[in-house]
């Protein structure tokens, strides 16, 4: 949390700026368009009507049938209220960015903006939204609720997360999702999806496939343009892993830069393939562009797919 009154004031000012900017960005999103991009979470009771040949006998309302002296069945309709969960990675690698001339903000700031787009759109549709904030382990869980103050708190909690050492626990947070979300939910998994350990990457792929059978999981991949290439200075470059503190000096010659760029592309394609295999969507977000633009395109695409 902020260490002083000045830190708190600046944090609240950041949240307010994100809210104002996000409200303006999502103002063109038609009412209900977000919700129509996703299926409801289940069925709710609507009415009873007299039994007709072909009706499922399991739907017979025996209390009404006994009172009326003839069979009646319960009629259900799709429950349109959505339960939305933001699963936001706040690990050390998410603090990369805000590089003059390359990217205007850190990846974590873009994650907060993406969270605000989803939260404010959910607010307009009166859907409930919650937050699971994680790095190596989950450090905050806010159950789904409605309301402006709750939506803004989600954004504030993303921005105020403290740095932590340790690898990103993407497999762990999907395991925890099965515990905190008892009913089907629309889950936005916000991360850069960087894996230092191949075994952890495979664990994540396994959990994603399993968890997507119960929940609608959408990956929001946060990236910064400067991550795609090594600087071309030619001189050795000292690097520090933001999640473990490990230090490494690498060469930045033509061959090394080409190998790095190739490894970067391969890693991103592996993650995209993991999502496709699990039947999940992956939305690309860049610190050089507004989050709302990419999300609006995604909502429109999902809406078209949902309506055939």
Write the topology of this structure.
Elements: H1 5-26, H2 33-36, E1 42-50, H3 62-68, E2 72-79, E3 83-89, H4 107-124, E4 128-134, E5 138-145, H5 148-159, H6 170-180, E6 186-191, H7 198-211, E7 216-223, E8 237-240, E9 247-250, H8 254-278, E10 281-286, H9 291-306
Parallel strand pairs: 3-4, 3-6, 6-7, 7-10
Antiparallel strand pairs: 1-2, 4-5, 8-9
Helix pairs in contact: 1-4, 1-5, 4-5, 6-7, 7-8
The CATH topology of the largest domain is Rossmann fold
Order of helices and strands: HHEHEEHEEHHEHEEEHEH
Strand order of the largest sheet: 5-4-3-6-7-10
| Uncertain residue segments | none
N-C termini distance: 46 Å
Q: Evaluate the radius of gyration.
A: 23 Å
Major sheet attributes: 6 strands, mixed
Task: List the domain count as a whole number.
Answer: 2
Percent of residues in helices: 40-55%
Number of helices: 9
Q: How many strand segments?
A: 10
């Amino acid at each position: 949390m902020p260490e002083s009154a000045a830190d708190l004031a600046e944090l609240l000012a950041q949240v307010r700026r994100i809210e104002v900017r996000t409200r303006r960005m999502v103002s063109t999103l038609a009412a209900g368009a977000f919700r129509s991009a996703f299926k409801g979470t289940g069925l709710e009771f609507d009415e009873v009507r007299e039994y007709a040949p072909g009706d499922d006998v399991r739907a017979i309302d025996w209390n009404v049938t006994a009172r009326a002296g003839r069979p009646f069945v319960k009629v259900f309709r799709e429950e349109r209220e959505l339960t939305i969960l933001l699963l936001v990675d706040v690990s050390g690698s998410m603090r990369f960015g805000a590089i003059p001339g390359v990217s205007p903000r850190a990846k974590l700031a873009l994650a907060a903006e993406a969270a605000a787009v989803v939260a404010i759109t959910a607010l307009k549709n009166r859907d409930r939204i919650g937050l699971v904030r994680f790095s190596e382990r989950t450090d905050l869980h806010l159950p789904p609720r409605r309301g402006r103050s709750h939506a803004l708190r989600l954004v504030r909690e993303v921005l105020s997360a403290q740095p932590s050492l340790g690898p990103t626990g993407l497999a762990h947070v999907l395991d925890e999702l099965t515990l905190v979300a008892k009913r089907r939910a629309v889950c936005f998994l916000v991360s850069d999806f960087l894996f230092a350990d191949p075994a952890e990457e495979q664990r994540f792929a396994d959990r994603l496939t399993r968890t997507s059978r119960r929940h609608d999981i959408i990956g929001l991949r946060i990236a910064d343009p400067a991550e795609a290439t090594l600087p071309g200075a030619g001189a050795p470059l000292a690097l520090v892993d933001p999640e473990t503190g490990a230090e490494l000096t690498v060469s930045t010659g033509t061959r090394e830069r080409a190998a790095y760029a190739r490894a970067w592309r391969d890693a991103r394609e592996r993650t995209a393939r993991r999502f496709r295999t699990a039947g999940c969507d992956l939305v690309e977000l860049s610190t050089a562009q507004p989050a709302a633009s990419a999300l609006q395109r995604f909502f429109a695409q999902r809406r078209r797919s949902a309506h055939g």
